[in-house]
Amino acid sequence: MAKLEINSAAEMQKLGAALAKTAEPHDLLLLTGDLGAGKTTMTQGLGRALGIRRPVKSPTFTIVREYREGKLPLFHMDFYRLENDDLSSIDLNGYLAEPGLVVIEWPQLVMTDLPDAYLKLKISRIDDSWNSTKREVELIAQGSRNEQWVQAALTEMNK
């Protein structure tokens, strides 16, 4: 596990870019944190670094947004509004089988349906003021590939 202090939206996007530059097909990135913690901001940096030109938006109301035009396909999911943990309308296994990057916000609602290997980012506000951009990000790797991903991303962040 590694911890980072993030002091701005730009730094959160830089973390996303570092993760994108070191991502491989079939990587699974789980994002946890309160509403407004920076999950979508981080994913925007990730998308930009993958070469996705259209805006990366929160999939809160659509559940899944697909971006296939980048260096890797990006499947951005948000299960915050998933009703009764019902995944029947989403082919989660199909997305996980594709050679892309799957990013899931609010994964705690579907953990039993996910593989054992993943990288989880736990994003927490450092102070309580709503407009503060200071965050602590814990990078929690499950599996050797994801441990390597963390190290590669941290190296990329420090360039």
Automatic annotation (TrEMBL):
Gene Ontology terms for molecular function: ATP binding; metal ion binding; transferase activity
PANTHER family named in the record: TRNA THREONYLCARBAMOYLADENOSINE BIOSYNTHESIS PROTEIN TSAE
Localization, UniProt: Cytoplasm
Source organism of the structure: Lactobacillus xujianguonis
Major subcellular location class: cytoplasm
Gene Ontology, cellular component aspect: cytoplasm
GO biological process, one term: tRNA threonylcarbamoyladenosine modification
One Pfam family this sequence matches: TsaE
Record protein name field: tRNA threonylcarbamoyladenosine biosynthesis protein TsaE
InterPro entries assigned: P-loop_NTPase (IPR027417), T6A_TsaE (IPR003442)
Gene that specifies this protein: tsaE
Keyword Repeat: no
Keywords assigned: ATP-binding, Cytoplasm, Magnesium, Metal-binding, Nucleotide-binding, Transferase, tRNA processing
